[in-house]
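Would you mind writing out a protein's amino acid sequence and the numbers that encode its backbone to help me picture the idea?
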Amino acid sequence: TSATGIEHGVGHLIHCPTLAGDRLHLAAEIPRRRGRSVAGVVVQTLFGAALEILERSGREIPVAGGTLFEVLARRAARNEPSLASGLGDFADGYAAAVGSMRDLLDAGLDPSLAEAVEEVLANDGPHVAPRLAVERARSLVRAASAAAGWVEALGAARPTDLVRLASQQLSLDGAGELWPCRALAIHGFAEATGIASDFLEVLVAQRGADAFIDHPPIPDGRGEAGRERAFAARLTARLAGTSIVEELPAGGESPRVDSFAAAGTDGEVREVLLRIRALLDSGARPEGIAVVARDLEPYRLALRRHAERLAIPISGLGIRGALTPAGSRIEAFLDLLEQRDALPTSRWLDALASVRVTSGRMPRPGFDFRLALAALGAGRLRDAAELELDGRLRDGRYPLPIRHGLFTADEAPEDASDENDAELDEAKAAGKSTSRVPRRTVSGRALAALLESAQRVRTLFVSWPERATVREHLRLLLLLVREELGWPGEAGNGGLVHELGRAVQALAQLGEELPAELILERDEIAPLIRRALLDFGRTALGGAGGGIQVLGVVEARARTFEHLFLVGLNRDAFPRPIRE
């Protein structure tokens, strides 16, 4: 339907998803349907359109507050006893409350109306829900309103806040020059949140936009004329109040549905890709084929492995691949930030890139040093920081509880020691044949440097203030990764150094995105850093947009394909059961 609007000279085409892959998909479909190149058409996401309107209006655009809201929403949830009692004892348990608070604000909850909403819940809630559920709902309203107020007070705004501001700006008289275009089409929506619906209604009512709403066919023919209409009914009714509804003839053939059963993830993925291989061999367009799952995590590695074996090009834009060596180190650093000196020693060593010594830096210790710390009883970082080596070294080296193997007296490795050296020397002097099973050892100097590093890290965490400005938290954070973990300060030419350098630069840039005067508690910094480093140290699932499209259900919205494969159609997985 969007291609029909192109015939009339569309200048802007608003697309529903915020993911770049979906926008690129639509941009590629327009010239493909036209059969030639198309000029003068802009495909934008809803958020991109809102930003352009605000820029043209001359208004000062608030700083991005999505990350800031995550932190402040958790703080607001902690202040609510009914939420803290149920979520506070879990690892990042407040994430569940943050999602609900975000949904409330996206639906249009205005902090100025929080008291009125609470009153409605108090009066009408007991008729439809238990008392504890009503109290949780009231707590969510209070917490969401408080977090939104804090974000606004700091001069920041969430993405949906910018959409709301753009809607208000377009509603002003004389705002027609804010978005000059010959025509405007809206595509890809079947439902929208309250704030997004407000924006779409303004575009239709005051800017003459054409909204194309698709009613997809139902394969088994149920429903009105065999098409699904219930899901889009609310949005359709809202837009119909300000526009004329025109029913366009449905095109295309009815879909044919097939299914198969497979034993295990690999068997399922292999069968799907064999069928895709047959489609490609018969001339099917790769970009017209999609593999969609509710959760791609169990299928990610199997898809990549079998696609390579069958020479099938795949792309998974927005899908994170497996961890790289840099990603493993970043994950270990995040664990260190959350668990501090209670972190297992092995995870601390995973986060290390090198160890600081008096003369500079020494390479990252290998497996033998992990074994040495385990043999010394240093199971956690705090144990390593308190460890003393006095009386444990032999000739400047620490003997490990494993042995090299069987050697003659003259063949023993240099890093070996033996408790019976005197007896071996006596036997050798007497001309007797001797053999030994020497212990492997590690350098006592290197082991001492490693323990000193553990002491410095622990001291840093002990001196870390409970409450400080963002700038102070980030200063200590950069000191930790650069000095104590040995991460490079700048991106290199590639590989591990490049990825770690990029991660350090992202941490340094975080201070510019957040208000410098913001006071954060020490426990609030870890979720913030985890969100900032979420996409670092990951391999790409496949290509950069070409080939078979591998998508989650969120990434697949508003996209159409000639061939669609749904994997993971298992009980309680797809479709997902809705639980509180």
Summary: Residues 1-10 have pLDDT under 50 and may be disordered. The CA atoms of residues 84 and 90 lie 10 Å apart. The first helix runs from residue 2 to 6.
